[in-house]
Specification:
10 strands; globular; 2 helices; mainly beta; about 40% strand; 5-stranded antiparallel beta sheet
Length: about 170
Amino acid sequence: MERTEQATWKCHYRLEKRHGDIDAFKTPEGREAFLEGTVPYEVKEGEGNCLLNSGINEMWDLVTGAVPGATHIFDNTAATIGVGDSSTAAAAAQTDLQAVTNKKYNAMEATYPTSTTQKVTFKSSFGSAEANYAWHEWVVKQSTSTKCLNRKVESLGTKTTGTWTLEIDITLS
């Protein structure tokens, strides 16, 4: 009898929508205080995403040392979350957001990404003047190599003002 092994990639996301502008706070401490001190007027959570082939290859290149870590790792200085308005279905062969003009990538909040017990968490906030359009897609992207790990397509609402914070948990088991 042949035995097979199976890995599981699970993704959970949480979008918090707040009144007010996080960009008015210039320090990491101020941004953190804003997020902790304001109550979201809406929270959306969901599961699933499409792991992109380019993201899979990037992970294996990092594991094997085929690429230098400094320009390919998804750390606080290089990981971003991108949001766009394309509702094109997600497919593994895609390499980025599918939006043509309405797309925005933001850096991680000060202490992100985090890594604990087979899970990584990415978190970015978009202030009042940013990404004001319908949010239909998101990705986690490495800003130097420009490789995206994954892509999710789901209508999250239309942002017109305020601060929207997207947190993405990816678990491997």
